[in-house]
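## retry 2 of 3
previous attempt timed out at serialization; input unchanged, resubmitting
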Amino acid sequence: MNEPGKVLKVKGAHSAVDSHPMRIWSVHPRYLDRQALIAGWRETLLAQAVLAGRTKGYRNHPQLDRFRTADDPVATVGAYLAGLADEADARGYRFDRSRIDRTDPADALSVTEGQLAFERGHLATKFAVRSPDLLPALPQRLEPHPLFTVVPGEIEDWERP
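## retry succeeded, writing output
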């Protein structure tokens, strides 16, 4: 997973490795392979632009619903981006933190156990294709991104499986 010293410059709004136009993972970024971490950064930068009113595209994307429920959606998505950047730092990558609009502390959001299980399966499917060497180390139960608190429940309403 680690490629120390790698500088990853990420631009654009879409990930070529993910057929879904936006995937903002609820799982902790440490579980993501390089492709998912980079795509998550790009896609969450797009989400930030949407929530800040800087773009007209993706305004109705269901993955944004959970951020819109926060008292301060822009600060909340900033906290999510900071979590991705922290993981990038731990791997020796450099994500441009100056692209994060707000770094204020944000209240935690909830994520259901069912959503984490769904995302684990989605991630395992991706690993099987592009990072099969990582699949055996993927735990059955994944911890959430630091922004999220786990609550009982099925797949989130905003997820479109």
